[in-house]
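Form 7-S
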Amino acid sequence: MADRIPKFSDLPVDKSGPHHNAWGLYGKDDQLGTLNRLSDDIVKAAAQGEIQTGTRINLDWPLDAQADVPFFGRQAFHKEVYQKPPRIVNDDVWTFNTQSSSQWDGLRHFGYQKEEKFYNGVTLDQIHGRNGVEKSNVNGIHAWSEKGIVGRAILLDYHEWRIKQGRDHHAFETGAIPAADLKQVAKDQGTEIKFGDILLIRSGYMDAYNKLSRSEIETMRNKQPLTFTGVEQSDEMMEFLWSNFSAAGGDHPSFEAWPTQKDYALHEVMLAGWGMPIGELFDLEKLGAHCKKIGRWSFFLTSEPTNVPGGVASPPNALAIF
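Output:
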C-alpha cells in the first residue's frame, strides 16, 4: 500500500481544499483516513511478528486520573455506584469528558480553523444540524470501532533518550520535539519503522505530572494559555508522520507543542487533512520500562474506540502485546 500513497511533497490531494489535505484519497465518503493503511495483511504480519511472549501492558490512564482538575477546562470524571434493591445488585453511571484522560482524538474534534472544515470537507453545520443542513453522524468515532486501531506499534522513548543526552525537558512549557530527534531515538533504540505503524511517543509528560502536588496542578490548570512541550510544527515533522504512520500519539495532553508555534496546528493537518488519529495522555510508563528491560520497542497494539455514533473522541481501551 505504501507505493499508492502520495508523497508528502504532492499534497494537497484536493487542490481546491486546505493545505496538506488528503481529501478524496480513499473516496469522498471515507471516514477512516490513515487507518486505511491497516490492511488485513499488515495486521496479520504484525501479529505474527510482534506477539512472542503474550505479555500484555495497559496503556490507558485511569478515567479519573486528573480527578477534579483536568486541563483545558474539561469536565471531571464522575462515577455513581448504586444498589438496585431489594436484590443484591449494583449498577453504575459514568459521566466524563472523553478528553479528560487517555483518548483518541476523532475526526470531529479539530478542523481547519481558517476554512472551518473537517476531514473530507465536512462542516460544522453537518455535525450540528444547523442552517438547514440535516444533522449527520459523519466522521464519528464509531467508524473506527468497526475494526479498531490494531497493528504493529512502536514506542519512541524520547524521555529516556534525552536523559541519556543530558538534555533538559520542561513538560509544562512550550517546547518542540523535532522530527530529527525522533528519528535519532528510533536509530539509537534499534527500532525499525515500518509503513502503517502506530506511533507512540513517551515525551516525559506523565513522569513530570506524577511528581506534581495538587496545588501545583491547580496553578498549571489556571495558566492562560496552557503551555506544553510536544512535537514540533514543521514540514519535516509532517513528512515523517505522513510517510510512515497510520496513527500517532503520546503521553502528553496536546501531542504537539502548545500553543502552536506556526500559523497552523498539526491537529488541523493530521485530523482534518489526513484523517490520522491523534492519541493523547496515554500512560506509557510501564510500557517504557518493559521495552527497556527486553530491548525491544515494537509490539502489537490493540485499541477499540467506543462505538458511539457521532462521537468526537474515545478512551483508547489499548493494550500493548509482546
